[in-house]
């Protein structure tokens, strides 16, 4: 998953690995700091529309679909895209800014999601004065007369 991030978004990959973490913390999933396996719980076969608001706003999360199932298409509402993900398919997307869910699946469906939470970026900013590119985007250096 980290190798894919390094190919698709090398700047984000480098940023995820450049700064150290507080003592006692380690990266749990390659470049990402967190990883969750969605199996059981509420309903692994279908999720409601949501954004992962606690995750890094302009980072990427990586989802791998697993199991023996049919259906369960990933819906990316803001992009107006529906993706048929089969077991073993991988997708990287900024899940903190794109509303998403999946259609109902039949069979045994689960997923593995790697992510970095926003509070890690905040820590890096405090400790290393890391400038987040998003804080400078959209600002023009031109002066209006």
Q: Hey, roughly how much beta strand do the residues contain?
A: 25-35%
The number of helical elements comes to 3
SSE sequence, one letter per element? HHEEEEEEEEH
**Global mean pLDDT:** 80
Mass-distribution shape? elongated
Question: In terms of quaternary structure, what is this?
Answer: single chain
Which structural class best describes the helix and strand composition?
Answer: alpha+beta
Give the low-pLDDT segments.
135-145
How helix-rich are the residues, as a percent range? 10-25%
Largest sheet: 4 strands, antiparallel
End-to-end separation in angstroms reads 49 Å
Radius of gyration: 17 Å
Number of strands: 8
Major sheet: order of its strands? 1-8-3-6
Account of the 3D structure:
- The N and C termini lie far apart (49 Å).
- The protein has helices at residues 2-8, 10-18, 118-128; strands spanning 34-38, 47-50, 61-71, 74-76, 81-83, 90-93, 100-102, 105-115.
- By secondary structure, it is an alpha+beta fold.
- The longest helix has 11 residues, at 118-128.
- The strands form two sheets. It has a four-stranded antiparallel β-sheet with strand order 1-8-3-6, with no helix packed on it. Strands 2-7-4-5 form a four-stranded antiparallel β-sheet, with no helix packed on it.
- It is built from three helices and eight strands, in the order ααββββββββα.
């Amino acid at each position: 998953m980290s190798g894919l991030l390094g190919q698709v978004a090398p700047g984000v990959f480098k940023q995820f690995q450049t700064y150290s973490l507080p003592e006692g913390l380690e990266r749990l999933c390659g470049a990402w700091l967190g990883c969750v396996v969605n199996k059981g719980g509420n309903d692994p076969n279908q999720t409601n529309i949501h954004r992962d608001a606690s995750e890094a706003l302009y980072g990427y999360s990586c989802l791998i679909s697993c199991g023996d199932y049919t259906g369960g298409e990933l819906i990316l509402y803001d992009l107006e895209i529906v993706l048929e993900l089969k077991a073993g398919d991988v997708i990287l997307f900024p899940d903190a800014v794109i509303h998403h869910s999946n259609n109902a699946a039949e069979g045994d469906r689960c997923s593995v999601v790697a992510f970095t939470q926003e509070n890690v970026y905040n820590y890096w900013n405090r400790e290393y004065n890391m400038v987040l590119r998003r804080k400078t985007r959209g600002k023009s250096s031109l002066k209006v007369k």
